[in-house]
What does this fold into?
Amino acid sequence: MPARPGLPTLRPGKGRRAEARARQRLERELTAGREHPDRAGERLGQPGAARPPGPLIWLHAQSQTTALDLLPLIERLRLERDDLNCLVTTDEYVPGDLLESHLPCACIHQFLPYGDGPGMDLFLAHWH
It folds into this structure.
């Protein structure tokens, strides 16, 4: 993937190692039941949804439970700008997709990719 302005360029070997570590971690987490099997690709930077047209704000929370605290902020922002789309990322998987049932229709939940390697580059390129 070509470097984008403003983002650090990784040495090719480092990128491959980071991707290998992310895949190994994903396999461990899936085996242990700590990842959503249908959304595993998100952990490697593969988008779980299309980027909506128009302005997009990205909010992050450690877990889906703490992301629920973002809902009043999201509602307030949407009152100010009804064309605003929202991407909420979380690190931790909670069985049952707790967050999706509470998000407004203009919001998307995505799991943050593991690490800072190629998966994060794919994630940022898609949601930019």
